[in-house]
Structure formats: C-alpha cells, structure tokens
Specification:
The complex is a heterodimer of chains A (322) and B (313). Chain A has 322 residues and is mainly α. Helix content of chain A is 71%, strand content 1%. A two-stranded antiparallel ribbon of chain A has the order 1-2. Chain B folds into 2 domains: 66 residues; 238 residues, MetI-like fold (Orthogonal Bundle). In chain B, helix 5 crosses helix 7. Classes of the chains: A mainly alpha (322), B mainly alpha (313). At the A-B interface, helix 2, helix 4, helix 5, helix 6 and helix 7 of A face helix 1, helix 2, helix 4, helix 5 and helix 6 of B.
C-alpha cells in the first residue's frame, strides 16, 4: 500500500512526500455515519408505519372474521352487533376517486397541452405558478368551498333533473367532494404532464411540423403519445392523492357508509372513517380503535400499489429520454 | 455542384413537382384543419379557464363571506361557543407557530443530512442505498392520515409515549414533510457542479470540509425553497393532527409539552366549519382568508428565492 502511494514528488533532495492523510480523520467518519443515520430515519419511519399498522390489525382479525371484513358491504361499527364490511367504505373512496378523475384528467391534460404547446412563454410563466398555488391551498378550505359553493351553486343547477334521484336538497354528496379533489389534483396532473411533454425531444416536434402537420395534430399524435408514460405516471400520482385525501371527503361527502358509485349519494370514505373515529380519547384496546388500523392497513396497501406503479412508470419514462 | 450544369433541368423539374404537391396539400388543408385546430385550441383554453375559475371562485367566496370577521379580535381572542362574534383564533395561531417551529427544528438538519448522505456519500449501486431512495419516494406519497395513525400508535402512545402534547403533533408533521425536504435538498445539492467539489478536494480539503464550505453554501437557496414549501404544506395539514390530539376547543395559549391540549389553525377552522350557525361559518371563512394570505406569502417568497438565487453554472 504505502509503497504505491509514496511517490517522489520532489525532483531533488529531501525524503519523498507521502500523499496519504496525516491523521485517521475520525471526525470525517463520524460525520458520514451521522448523515447516514439521517437517511436511515426515513426507512425507520416506514418500518414504524408498518409495525404500528400490523399489531392492532392482527388484533382486529382475532375478533372480526376476514370473510366479513373483505366481502361484506355493510360498514356499521356503531350498530349492535357491529358489522365490519370494509367494502362499504372502500366503495366510498372509489366513488370519489373515479368521479374526481373523470373531471381532473381531461382538465389537467388539456391544461398541460395548452401550457406546453400553445401558450407563449410569457403566459406559461404566469399561469403555471398560479395553478401551483392551488396545490398549496389547505384541503380544509377546498372541502368547505366544495360544500358551500360547488354543491349549491354548481352541481345543483347543472344536474340533469331527477337523474339518479336528483341532486336537490342534499347537504352532502360524493360529487361535491369529487369536484373539490379534482380542483386539488388538476394542477398536479397539469404540471407533471407539462414537464413530460416538454421532455419530448425537440426533433420529433419540429419534424412533424416540417411534414405539414397542424398544431393540433402535433400535440395529439406526436407529443402526447411520446410523453404517454410520464402522463400516466402523473395520473397515477393524482389517483393516489385522491385515495388518501381526508379533509375534503370528511367535510363534503358526508359520513354514511354507502356501497354505491352514484355521485349524488352521501358516502363515507376510508380516510373519513379513520379521521372521525380515531380522534382524541378513543380507548386504546377497543374494537373501534383496532378497526381504524385495519382500515389504515387497507388504505396503505392501496396507495403502496399505486406508488409502485408510479415509480415503475416514471423510471421507464426516464430511460427513454436521458 | 460540378454536375450541376448537367442535372439542372432535372433539379428544376423536381423542385417544381415538390412545389406543386405542397401547394396542393396546403390548399387542401385549411377548410377542415383550420376549423379543427381552432376548436381544439378553444377546448384547451376552456379547460384552463375552468381550473383558474375554481381558484378565483374559492378565493372570492372566502373574501366575500369572511371579510366581515376580519378584525384584531380574530387574532387576539380565543375561540368561544357562547360569543361567536368575539371568538378568534389566538390559541390556534400560537399552536400552529409552535408546531411549525418544531417541524423546522427537526426537518432541516435531518432532511439536509439525509440528502447529503444520499448525494455525497452513498454508493448508488449498493442495495441498501437504493432501498433508502425507493423508500423516500414511497413515503412522499403515503396519505397524511396514515402519518396520523403512525403518530397515534408510535409517538403519542406506544414506544415514544409522549401523550397528546403539541410536540407529538409537531413530530408527526415533521415526519410527514421529511420526504419532501429530502427530495428538494437532493435536487439542490445535485445542481452544484462536480468541478466545484473536485477543485476543493484538489486543494487538500477533506470531503466534509468540501461539503461544508463549498457544496452546502451553493445549495442553500434550493434547500431553503424546498423547506419553505414543505413548511407551507405542514401549516395547512389537518387530518394527522386530528389523530394526535389537536383537540376541539382550546381557549388558552398552548405550550409545547403541556398536556392540557393544543390546537392548530386548520383544525380550528374545521371545528368552526362543522358548526351550523352562520357566525361560525363566517369565522371559518375569515380563518381561511388568514391561512391563504400566509400560505400565499410563503409560496411567493419561495418562488422569489428560487428565481433570485438560481445559479447557472
């Protein structure tokens, strides 16, 4: 070792100078380990989440049979005897996710196409940050806006009459929460899809124009397909945000578990159940307490799957253009 | 070019043919495509206007319905069920400030430390380092209510057993925004060019000296932007706090470790929202105005910071 690193650096006279560190540098190593510990904390967080979900969930399944939990559609924990059919609130979550995406995906993608292909740099520089402000609005405010403005002044007047039982006179409904969530995730879809479309090599874009394609054709047939995996990843991210959104569904969608996908019904989402049940002084060992963790575990599993899909897609899309 | 003389007529013929074809296509194009193009552009514009209209409607509604409650009382007075016209947000604002102070104290050293490790020390080909990276990406998308469950089972009760105190809420929020800070700090650190590091190392600085005196100072604007955005997320977060003890009515000034309970701005707004009386609804709107103003200021500052100190190497 030392024979290799001890090189004669001075041409004449004096002993050859050693290029090795003159001390062991314990401080350097300590810093490295301290920083590594910071990084490790994030892994510990995940571990803690999994551990804290698993314990009470196992306790829950010792009392409530798995067949009831996974296959029954009645979520009535407060009844006597209680029924814990998680499908009753999974349906509530899916209801809100589906209807919010039905609005958010077209709006978000159209905004992204506009920003990346149509808007002048100046317009883009103003519109994009303004839209991103929407992401920063507290979800309490969006939920309250959904139930006091969107529901009475947008949904009720625009709803087609008695379709699906009509929208009139309902204090809460899934659609109000869906529109609130759509408002929240449109900027996410728009911003990430815009980035994906701008990452498409300039050559594809210019080539299509040189062949005489119109702006609409370049946008829909060249840029959009080339950026598709990034666009899908942005939608997946939006879905996982909608799955986990709590305050908007808690305020605007009501609190009645309802196995339906109808947008004009009052429903309860998984997150809303957790937030209403686990507040403050819930008794630690009770069945209600354990049910919160069982529902949390289902929600965690659902978002985990969405995250894995999203990470895969983003990675694939990165490989194409870097 | 030398052959130009001989093939000139042929070239001319080819050019004329191409021109004729192009002109034929262009003449063909307008009718259908111009209409389609305009309709398409119109639809895009409509979409973006709907999204912006949502934002405008939200802000306007809050201003219209909440401005009557905007007064010094709103900030100075505690909430009250008996006198809604005198009720305010004092404990909630103090609670939010303390929560955020705790978040910053935790998240800045840990988040920057983790980012420095991943960018400057970690060997990306090792499985454990890749595990940390994937894990951080994953954590960034875990729903906030799950962090609430973590806070309830792990911090308030369980291993840490802090009880329903403000510090527990602060730690929960800190864990929630930690992935955001790490991701932003990593990007800022990655943007510092390698030549800076190599120059410093070549002058005999150790790795930590290089990081401390060269990399970190250059990355500070980016890190600060990420921290501000993360803090503004934490300010507006409600759901996890409901689980870790931000309780219904707190009429006194909260302290970090006091076990009498604490409140936070969005939680207090939520408590006013669920009360049916008009006075409380007005209070809720007024609270939303205050929060929007604070968050807008923070986000604008972050964007300004990013543009002001953005370095092109």
């Amino acid at each position: 070792m030392s024979s290799q690193t001890t090189i004669a650096t001075q041409p004449a006279g004096g002993p050859p100078r050693r290029l090795q560190a003159t001390s062991k540098r314990y401080g350097e190593r300590a810093v490295k380990w301290a920083l590594a510990f910071c990084a490790l904390l994030s892994v510990l967080t995940t571990t803690a989440i999994v551990i804290s979900l698993i314990g009470p969930t196992i306790g829950f399944f010792e009392i409530v049979p798995g067949s009831e939990f996974f296959f029954s559609v009645d979520w009535t924990p407060q009844f006597e005897p209680p029924s814990f059919g998680v499908l009753g609130i999974v349906a509530g979550t899916l209801n809100v996710v589906i209807w919010s995406m039905l609005f958010a995906v077209p709006l978000g993608l159209a905004t992204a196409v506009f920003l990346s292909e149509y808007a002048s740099p100046r317009v883009r520089k103003v519109v994009k940050p303004v839209l991103e402000v929407l992401v920063g609005i507290p979800t309490v405010a969006i939920g309250f806006f959904a139930v006091t403005f969107l529901l009475p002044h947008v949904i009720v007047p625009l709803w087609p009459g008695e379709f699906l039982g009509g929208a009139e006179g309902k204090p809460f409904m899934a659609l109000a929460a869906s529109l609130g969530i759509a408002l929240m995730v449109v900027p996410i879809i728009a911003s990430l899809s815009d980035d994906a479309m701008r990452a498409v090599p300039r050559g594809l874009h210019d080539g299509a124009y040189a062949l005489g394609a119109t702006k609409a054709k370049v946008a829909t047939r060249v840029i959009f397909p080339a950026a598709l995996s990034g666009i899908v990843a942005s939608i997946v991210l939006a879905i996982s945000r909608a799955l986990g959104e709590t305050m908007i569904v808690l305020i605007a969608a009501g609190s009645t578990p309802n196995f339906t996908l109808s947008p004009v019904e009052s429903i309860q989402a998984m997150t809303a159940y957790i937030a209403t049940t686990a507040t403050g002084d819930i008794a630690s060992g009770s069945l209600d307490y354990k049910s919160v963790f069982a529902v949390g575990a289902v929600l965690f599993a659902m978002t985990l799957i969405m995250n894995i899909v999203s990470i895969r897609l983003v990675r694939r899309y990165r490989e194409v253009y870097e | 070019m030398e052959a130009g003389g001989a093939s000139a007529p042929r070239n001319r013929l080819a050019v004329a043919g191409a021109r004729a074809t192009t002109e034929a296509m262009l003449r063909d194009q307008p009718r259908r495509d111009v209409i389609r193009n305009t309709v398409f552009a119109g639809l895009l514009l409509l979409a973006i206007l709907i999204a912006l209209a949502g934002l405008v409607a939200l802000v306007t509604q809050a201003l219209v319905r909440g401005s009557s409650a905007l007064s010094p009382d709103l900030i100075n007075n505690p909430p009250s069920t008996a006198f809604p016209d005198k009720a305010g947000y004092r404990p909630a604002i103090l609670g939010s400030l303390q929560l955020i102070a705790g978040v910053i104290l935790f998240v800045v050293p840990v988040g920057v430390g983790a980012a420095l490790y991943l960018e400057e020390y970690a060997d990306g080909s090792r499985w454990w380092n890749r595990l940390v990276e994937i894990n951080i990406q994953n954590l960034a998308a875990v729903p906030s209510i799950i962090y609430g469950i973590l806070g309830l089972a792990f911090i308030v009760r369980g291993p840490l057993d802090l009880g329903f105190i403000l510090a527990a809420g602060s730690l929960t929020l800190a864990l929630l925004v930690l992935p955001m800070v790490i991701i932003a700090a990593r990007e800022a650190i990655r943007a510092v060019p390698d030549s800076i590091r190599q120059g410093s190392l070549a002058l005999g600085a150790t790795q930590w000296q290089t990081i401390r005196t060269q990399v970190l100072p250059a990355a500070i604007p980016g890190i600060a932007t990420g921290v501000i955005l993360a803090v503004s997320r934490a300010v507006g977060e409600t759901a996890p706090l409901l689980l870790v003890g931000a309780t219904v009515f707190v009429t006194f000034d909260p302290t970090p470790f006091g076990s009498d309970g604490y409140s936070a701005m969005p939680v207090q707004i939520f408590n006013y929202i669920v009360r049916p009386q008009d006075e409380f609804q007005t209070l809720a709107f007024a609270g939303i105005i205050v929060m929007l103003a604070v968050l807008l200021a923070m986000n604008s500052f972050a964007i300004w910071l990013r543009n002001r100190y953005e370095q092109r190497w």
